[in-house]
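Entry 14. Structure prediction run on the chain below.
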Amino acid sequence: MSSSSTSPTQPTAISVENDINLYTQSLIQELKTKSSREITKYKITKNDSMKKSIDIILNKLPTNAILFEGFTRDIQKLISIIEIVKQKSKESNKKLHQYNRLFKFQTTFNPYKKLKFDKDVEVVDFSNEIEVKASIETDGINENLRREAELEVKGEKLFNLPVLYILLTFDDGFKEYLDNNWTIQQ
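Output returned:
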């Protein structure tokens, strides 16, 4: 393996989010093309207000199909909001249709790693880099070469991150346009 200056860029939270967003947009475009129906994207995060989200969804739902996206820790909040929306929509005489798709996104980025913050300023921890540099200087080049060889053989750790898509609509016609990766929620 070559030096760190020529190694590929490590993914970040923003680059992973952008990649998932691109996939979501392609999914929406595919559904729009097949069905000729309008689809609104709604991303749920774990920090979203449930009441505000539910109100927005209930206002949009009668006129649009909504594709919800939840990523890793956001999935729990997404499911809770969807279940409440389904309960509240039972008050109308229309039948709500739910279609689910679970997607696995592979990356070397660890979204579960805690970031250190100090009064709204991110604290960058260089201790690991300092230890590695000190190790290289004291233990010689052999230790560095061993680590590089181990990384090359084993590769970087891959994380399989779940992304849940839920399509909610009052229109029953969507099921004919969905592939086998979608399940129908009764």
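The CA atoms of residues 41 and 154 lie 38 Å apart.
Filed with the rest of this week's runs.
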